[in-house]
Each structure stands twice: as structure tokens, then as C-alpha cells.
Specification:
12 helices; 8-stranded parallel β-barrel; 10-stranded mixed β-sheet; Lyase, Ornithine Decarboxylase, Chain A, domain 1; TIM Barrel; 2 domains; elongated; alpha/beta
Length: 461
Amino acid sequence: MELTETAALPLPAKELGWVTRVRTDPTLLADLANAVGGGPFHVVYPEQFTTNLAAFVDAMVTAGVDGKVYFGKKANKAACWPRACAEANTGVDVASAPELIHALANGVRGEDLVITGPSKSDDLLWLATRHRCLITVDELDELDRVIAIADAGEAVRILLRVLPPSNPNSRFGLNDNELDLAIDRCVAHRAHLRMEGFSFHLTGYSVAPRAWQASDLIDRCLAARAKGLAANSVSIGGGFAVDYVDASPWQQFLSEYQDSWFHTRKTFSGFYPYHANPAGAEMLSAILGSSVATEHSDLAAKFAQTGTRLLIEPGRALLDGCGFTAFPVLGYKPRQDYGFITASGLSLSLSEQWFASEYLPDPMLWPQQEPSTPTSACVGGSSCLETDMLSWRKIRFDRVPRRGDLLIYPNTAGYQMDSNESEFHQLPLPPKVVVTTSPERIRWRLESAGVSHRGGGHSHE
């Protein structure tokens, strides 16, 4: 089947060296597919996570700002990430008792955990208090429950989450009246309740709103200190962008976009900004370099000169370049203008579908072969549901897909891998394969569900 004008413009993903090395190995991916039993699997690379983590820490150090990085654990459930945070003496952001326990089991100390999320369970609050975790309080009745724990003689560390004026309809955070009441209660119970500052989270990926909101919360910290509270920290949350594709193909894709590029002319409410500049740690540097503080040269200077610590909670950005997903091809069905690949696995392994959107970086066929007949195809999952589509987009391939190929989706570690995977049709969850590299060899092991191990497992030379 010849390629037609219905095929979408390509969006090739940026690829790090470790991915190229694994993907171009003549046998490794086939060995992994055989080892996991022929279903889909995720490949993860903790060394890149450590590199990303160091870049965020370095951005703070370079700006002269004291603070802490907390990995947003919800972005990926693998045990190797909290283990890397423990080894780097950084923190983890958790929102449930199981996440807290999992982080502790992988070496993260309680004082290096921040507890986020609304209306936390009593068990989570109690366990977090026992381990000296920092608790983000989202509502007044939650504050009252925390105060009850503190009044019982337990020392409790908290932040107050602020409702950002730029997002007044959010269900999260305390408005100005609620903050006034919360501050008064913190003052009244400060013998065992340590109010360490404020937090916020913004949707979107813009620099300026985060800088302005952070500057405002530094002022709130100063006012709270005047009332006798510690108030020494501001958390700006996550939302650090990831730069998946280069600028030129992304801009061309957006400018020439048409519904006919998608099966059934499927429409979407929006897409993640797959090209971003600044992104990752560079976005943090841009925030800190913003001129939003009239009495200081920039936001970084305001943090430093007021003795205020910066806390951040990146998730996806720490996982940039840290993993990919391989789906075995079960079959290919050509039609008049484009075909359908049926992949072993479900769209639940690409979580953009959960947001009624599409994961746009181009998947690649493995093994690599000489180009033959250019083909465009959508990708469906192995369930009986019409809506189980990994890619609605008509993707360009330089050859015809065939049973036994692997379809490699790039850079999926951030949210795509396991945010909403399920055992639909009683299919097992895709396993994670942890890869490490040296100049001489590639080593791999299967990720356990609980604790990440330093060594052992299988190797490939």
C-alpha cells in the first residue's frame, strides 16, 4: 500500500545515546521480548534520571538558592527512581500511604518526603507524622486533623497550599480568607505544629506565572514569620516542560494540522506541547532568573536574600529520556488509504489517551531494515474495543509492519508507562526492564514490584 496524503507529518523524537545503543543492538530487544513472555514491556534507564536530577540541583546551586528537589512519584511507579533519589539525598513527593511506604522501602528518609494531594486519609497523616514527613495541607478541616495529631504530642511539619489567583476555579488550595484562618490556627498551635511555608501548583508550562506566584508566597512567608512561624520554604510544585521533539517539525505539524491525519477524523481538545523551550532544569533557571521582585535583581535573589528555601516537585521532567515502551506487533491489516497495526497491549499504557489526547512522538519499527514500501498506519490495542487505540494518528513507516516486529514508543517514562495501566482482559501489566550500560556491555534486569536492587539480574554483552 502506497503512502497517501492522509498520513500525518512525522514527529521524530529526540533520542539519547543509551536508547540508540539498545535499539540498534541486533538481538537485545528480541531477547527482552522473549524473556518477558511476548507481551509489551517498558525499558527504563536510571542513569539518565540521576543526570536529570543533578541538573535541577545544579540550577538551584548556580542561582544561589537553597532548596530541595522532590520527585513526583505519581509520574512512574518503578522502584529504581526513589532509590536514585535516596542515593542523591533528594526527596520524593507522594500522595498515598502505599507510595509513602514504597519510598521508605527504597531508602528515602521520612524527612525527605513531602505528602501532597487533597483530603488525605487519617492513616496517611498519622504515618507521615511518625516519619517526620512534610505535609502539604489543602483545606481547613485537614488542618484541624493535623492539629489534633500535633496536640497529642507529635511534632508535625506542614506547608499550606495556596489557591493561585490565576486559577481561581481550582478545587485545590486555600483562598485568602481560609489562609488567614489557617495562619491563626498555626500560631495558636505552634508548640508542636511547625508551619514551614506555602506551596502552589499551576497547570500549563509557562515561566512567568510561576515566578510571580513564587514571589508572592515569599512575601507571605515574611508575614508569617512576623507572627512567630518558621515559614522558611516555598514549593512551586511541578509542571516543568519536556522537550520531546525539535522545533521545526513541531511547528510544521501544528501549522499544517488536519483532522484527516487521524483515524475516523478523530479530534482532540489539545496536545501536550511536545516542543518546549525552556524545558526541564533550564525552565527552573528561567523562573529563578525572572525579574518579578522589585527590591531584588531577580527571583533567585529574593529567595536568597530573604532566607527562603525553594522546593520543587518535578515528575515528567525528571523522567525525560529515561525510558521507552516496546509493543510486539500481532498483525497488520492494510486498507485502501492506510492500515491498522494491532499491538500486543492496550492504550492504557499510553496515558495521553486517558486525557482524551494523543501521544505524538513517532513510534519506530524494530528490527530496523532497509526502506521498502512506505506505509501509513494507525495502532490499535489487542482488546475488542474500537476506542482502544494507541495511536489514532496515521503514522508514516518506511516499510510494511509485520507480525513479530516490535513497535517502539519513545520517551514514555514520564506518565505514559503506568499511570493508568490495568489488567483488562486479564492481561498482565507490562513489566519494566532496568538497563545499565558500560563501554563493554549492556546489562539488564527485571524491575521488582517493591524494592530496587543495586545489582544482580541478567546481563547482555
